[in-house]
Design goal:
This protein has 94 residues and is mainly alpha-helical. Helices cover 74% and strands 0% of the residues. It has a domain at 18-74: Serine Threonine Protein Phosphatase 5, Tetratricopeptide repeat, CATH 1.25.40. It is built from five helices and no strands.
Length: 94
Amino acid sequence: MVHPIYDAETLKRATEAHFQKNWDEILKINLSMLEKHPDDEFLIWHIADNYLKLGNTEKAIEFAEKIKESAAHKDDIMLRAAHLAQPNLDDEPE
């Protein structure tokens, strides 16, 4: 699913960064998009996921809490978040 806030060039950059697992670049793109769309729940989730992939659990939780507190569709987003986060959690050392 492609999010409608991404223009063609941004989507191309984000896709390339994703396939290269360049989480720093994706985070940079998503934070830039957040300036234009500060209430976009799915974008906020992606930022939380980016921070999780970069090992910054504190920032990941900070953004996840924003979804939890304000999202109109928070139950759906939290279910998707749990599904998306599971591979990251599976990779955590015990």
